[in-house]
Design brief:
The complex is a heterotrimer. Chain A is built from eight helices and 20 strands. Chain A is α+β, with helices and mostly antiparallel strands. In chain B, 74% of the residues lie in helices and 2% in strands. Classes of the chains: A alpha+beta, B mainly alpha, C mainly alpha.
């Protein structure tokens, strides 16, 4: 697409014997907040560094705004970057840190001062301009890092787990703030994180990365509700996983044996009797039925068990249920008016259409 | 795959590392090589002539004086190294273990005298140890006879060499112990090892390399010492290094001097190699593992 | 002996050894400084004050020349040492390469070659092969070899603590390599470079065995001192010793205080 800001094609990188990035391709448009989500070791930081030009790929191309920059060093790519450890220059004051990119680009003094004012205001850094990084709190340092990244109006901004070093409260606040900056500035953000809640909160599109490759690249709701691979189903969201062989098939629906419990599950193509599958269903998609609750309607699965523990989280809670076959399921539900206590006999139900199956390989 | 317009990491490394490495190659490695070459040449009227021959080596090996000097130097250097290790180890250990905030100060105080230069140090030492030095003058003032052995003798040279180079050894062991995790000894203690055992099994294996480096830093200059024996060793105190020096400053026998230099270099290398192997093997023997 | 008694005995012995070592190292220095202010330098008791030695140093032309030569020598070799050591330590720690170990070993080689050998081999090599007669240039180069290892160790210690990711950040924001060095790296490592410079200067300034063979007739401060030692002890020698010792200790004290109060680190890690 012609309005793509970033296009990467077939990027591969290995370090010695380890393959960090394995032939990935991607296109990111101009107003996208794009998240690279994956566990540590998935290659997401390496990919980000390749886009930045801090690492050279073994194969593939990086194209920014139509220009092939694969051979270009980072200082020729006109990008911005925000690092997890902030990486502010300790020997420079806050304002010197912030205007650094402009000085490198030889922007005129007048323009520099104007943009500095803009950045300071945007990031609420008023009054801190003459301080040194070590005199700032973590949150303030992060805002300086953001200001530095944004001030040069780069073609795109790369963020490498920028909120990981902040405490929880601050992180929640910053998630909203960072999203706002992206919307205001209209440039694409590429946000690397291992924290799926962050990715789901802030982004438009997510690429789930695992062992150097993209498992799924889609709009965030899609990734959440329709995971396309086994890994994504297990990694994104909190799901119950039930494993067992398929016992019978009837079109797109089949039955599986889960440790003695029989379940009806929606099947994908190519699943035959005997295939061992993992059935994933999100914890909030299963319904907890107490002794006083009415029966559900429509075709459903039902398993019975005993409530082992309730993990209270404020508005919602995780209900841990031990079943007769010994396995445990988690139900996420509201706490209002449940009237349940540990030890109660309960039932877990869910409509037949919910959940997704993936074959277990290896 | 796209063309590489940027310098690869290897190229950048080479660019930065080349100046120093080339410098060492041209001004250290090549000169050593050249004296090996020159040792096979002939000197005439202070000039070298590429008249390939083994005369120089013949002279060195057959004239007993040279070999005597070499032996004397070897013995002196070995003893000096031994004394330095025996004295230096507990001192370095003490500084690290009990020095606390003053560790840096203590080691700097030890290192500083080294930098004042060999002549000033030797003359200062002579001021104390010499025939009219403080030590003997004090003795004489109180009616005692001067101690002969510490002036113009091998012992004096030995003391002088210890004086000059022990800071090197202590610093080397200090740096090694600096990175040593003393809590390992706690673990050994808990597992039943008495202090001497803990030293052999834990402390020594992890610090032998630093010790050897320190010993080498003492041994090499001691073996080659030319100035010290002249002033402290007395008339019969000349060592190999002093004789070597004379080939260049007085007699102008450049080829012979080169041969002596080669012998010195070779002997140093041999001793270092032997030290390395012996200690390495011994350690491997104790713990049964081959590091 | 009980374990505890053993420990205490050990601690006392090594402590005593340390004190003895300090006495051993400093007694001659203190003595010669004392002697330099005395009339009778050989046996300055009873104490009589005199500044004769210093006077002779002050007016003696040979000493002025020697001082000048030593300064040139020191500065020349210090400049070379600092540059090579900085480049080498950055190369070894910034970039991945299988030649790293070799480069480190190369820079440390001079420690294992005796001064005497460096002196004579550089004399012959420079004269015969490079056509460089024994002169200041040759001496500076040879002294730089000796000092390089010390400078390298200092710079290596500093660069180990340098956060290279700052360079990454600078590059991303548009700084070309040279600019990055000037803006980011240099401001953070210059104290170590200064320390390396001071140390290699002192080494070159006070060196005898390397400089002597390369300079021949040209006098340096150490070689005039040597001459003075050989031909009879005059009062200038103790005076010179006092001055040089004072300078070295001042330099070390300054560096220590700066390190102690964390103004600069010169690479040391506590």
């Amino acid at each position: 697409m012609s309005d793509d800001v970033l296009v990467i094609e077939g990027i591969s990188k290995r370090f010695g014997q380890t393959v960090a990035v394995n032939g990935v391709s991607l296109a990111i448009g101009s107003r996208e907040f794009f998240a690279l989500l994956g566990p540590s070791g998935s290659g997401k930081t390496t990919l980000l560094r390749i886009i930045a030009g801090l690492e050279a790929p073994d194969a593939g191309r990086v194209v920014i705004n139509g220009r092939d920059v694969t051979d270009q060093p980072p200082y020729a790519r006109h990008i911005g970057m925000v690092f997890q450890e902030f990486l502010l220059f300790p020997h420079k004051k806050v304002f010197e840190n912030v205007i650094f990119p402009l000085r490198m680009q030889r922007v005129s003094r007048a323009e520099r001062d104007e943009r500095l004012k803009w950045a300071i205001e945007l990031l609420h850094l008023d009054g801190l301009e003459d301080r040194y990084p070590h005199q700032l709190s973590g949150g303030q340092q992060q805002r300086v890092a953001l200001a530095r990244g944004l001030i040069s109006r780069p073609a795109l901004l790369l963020l490498d787990e920028p909120l990981a070093n902040l405490d929880r409260e601050l992180r929640k606040e910053m998630e909203v703030e960072v999203r706002r900056y992206q919307l205001d500035l209209g440039i694409p953000f590429i946000y690397v994180t291992h924290n799926q809640e962050e990715a789901l909160t802030m982004s438009d599109r997510i690429a789930v990365m695992h062992q150097g490759a993209f498992e799924q690249v889609a709009e965030k709701h899609e990734v959440y509700t329709n995971p396309s691979t086994h890994f994504v189903a297990g990694f994104v969201g909190h799901s119950n996983r039930m494993r067992g062989p398929i016992t019978s098939v009837a079109g797109r629906v089949g039955r599986m044996d889960w440790d003695g419990v029989e379940l009806s599950v929606p099947l994908a193509d190519g699943m035959a009797v005997g295939t061992v599958i993992d059935f994933f269903i999100k914890c909030e998609k299963v319904i907890l039925r107490g002794p006083l609750d009415t029966a559900p309607d429509g075709p459903h699965n039902l398993v019975a068990g005993r409530l082992r523990d309730i993990i209270f989280k404020g508005a919602a809670a995780d209900y841990l249920v031990v079943l007769e076959n010994g396995a445990e399921l988690t139900v996420t539900d509201s706490t209002a008016g449940r009237g349940l206590a540990t030890g109660d006999r309960v039932e877990i139900v869910w409509p037949l259409a919910n959940g997704i199956c993936f074959a277990v390989d290896g | 795959m796209a063309r590489r317009k940027r310098l690869s990491e290897d190229a950048r490394f080479a660019l930065m590392a080349a100046p120093g490495t080339l410098f060492i190659f041209i001004f250290l490695f090549l000169p050593i090589l050249s004296i090996i070459v020159f040792s096979f040449w002939r000197t005439e009227v202070y000039q070298l002539y590429p008249d390939w021959n083994l005369d120089n080596y013949r002279v060195l090996l057959t004239t007993p004086t040279y070999m005597v000097f070499l032996m004397r130097s070897l013995v002196t250097a070995s003893l000096v190294s031994l004394v330095c290790v025996v004295l230096g180890w507990p001192i370095a250990y003490f500084i690290i273990r009990y020095g606390g905030r003053y560790r840096l100060l203590m080691i700097l105080a030890l290192a500083a005298p080294f930098f004042t230069g060999i002549i000033l140090r030797v003359s200062a030492l002579q001021g104390i140890m010499g025939p009219v030095g403080a030590f003997n003058m004090t003795l004489m003032t109180f009616g005692f006879a001067p101690v002969k052995v510490i002036m113009f003798s091998q012992v004096a040279t030995g003391i002088g060499l210890v004086y000059l180079y022990i800071p090197f050894l202590v610093t080397a062991i200090y740096l090694s112990l600096l990175n040593f995790d003393f809590e390992l000894l706690e673990a050994a203690k808990v597992n039943g090892a008495p202090p001497w055992r803990a030293f052999i099994e834990i402390t020594w294996p992890l610090n032998w390399m630093g010790t050897i480096i320190g010993v080498i830093l003492v041994f090499i200059p001691s073996l080659a010492s030319s100035v010290t024996p002249i002033f402290l060793g007395g008339a019969n105190g000349a060592l190999f290094g002093s004789v070597l020096g004379r080939q260049f400053s007085e007699t102008g026998t450049l080829a012979l001097g080169s041969a002596m230099g080669v012998v010195l270099f070779a002997v140093s290398g041999l001793v270092i190699y032997l030290m390395w192997r012996t200690v390495n093997l011994r350690r491997a023997g104790f713990t049964g593992k081959d590091y | 002996m009980t374990r505890r008694a053993f420990e205490i005995a050990g601690k006392l012995t090594s402590g005593a050894l340390l004190v003895l070592l300090y006495l051993f190292l400093y007694a001659p220095i203190v003595y010669i400084i004392y002697a330099s202010f005395s009339k009778n330098i050989s046996w300055p008791f009873p104490p009589q004050f005199s500044l004769k030695g210093f006077e002779l140093l002050w007016i003696g032309r040979t000493y002025h020349e020697a001082l000048y030569n030593s300064l040139i020598l020191g500065i020349g070799s210090a400049v070379l040492c600092t540059i090579f050591a900085t480049l080498g330590s950055i190369a070894v720690l910034r970039y991945r390469s299988r030649w790293r170990r070799l480069v480190v070993i190369a820079h440390l080689c001079p420690l294992f070659v005796a001064n005497l050998l460096v002196g004579i081999s550089s004399l012959l090599f420079n004269r015969q092969v490079l056509g460089l007669p024994g002169n200041m240039g040759s001496a500076i180069l040879a002294n730089a070899i000796h000092g390089l290892s010390f400078a390298f160790l200092i710079m290596l210690a500093q660069m180990l603590r340098y956060d290279w990711r700052m360079d990454d950040a600078a590059m991303v924001f548009g700084a070309r390599p040279l600019r990055c060095f000037w803006e980011i790296t240099l401001p953070n490592i210059w104290p170590a470079m200064l320390g390396a410079f001071i140390i290699s200067f002192i080494l070159g300034f006070n060196n005898l065995e390397i400089s002597f063979y390369n300079l021949g007739a040209t006098q340096t401060l150490p070689s005039t001192a040597w001459g003075s030692l050989r031909h009879g002890l005059g009062p200038e020698l103790p005076a010179l010793a006092t001055l040089v010792n004072a300078a070295v200790f001042l330099a070390f004290a300054a560096m220590y205080l700066l390190m102690r109060y964390r103004i600069f680190s010169f690479g040391h890690r506590e």
